[in-house]
Specification:
The protein is of the alpha+beta class. A three-stranded antiparallel beta sheet has the order 1-2-3. The longest helix is centred in the N-terminal third of the chain and has 6 residues.
């Protein structure tokens, strides 16, 4: 049986915590942040848990 390949784009965007939860960054925080107010910019700094309904992500990163 062949080894399953890791989807590299997904592996770069999601990671698994020590307790086994999937985490991701919020979108839109790389550039053009000077035009937004401070409240919006601070809110984008926090990482989010991935919802359990997105089980496809787990299939794409099998060895994490």
């Amino acid at each position: 049986m062949k080894k399953q390949k890791t989807h590299k784009a997904t592996a770069k965007r999601f990671w698994v915590t020590g307790s086994g939860k999937l985490r991701r960054r919020k979108a839109g925080q790389d550039h053009f942040n000077s035009r937004e107010n401070e409240k919006t910019t601070k809110g984008k700094r926090k990482d989010l848990d991935v919802d359990d309904t997105n089980s496809r992500i787990i299939e794409l990163i099998p060895y994490k």
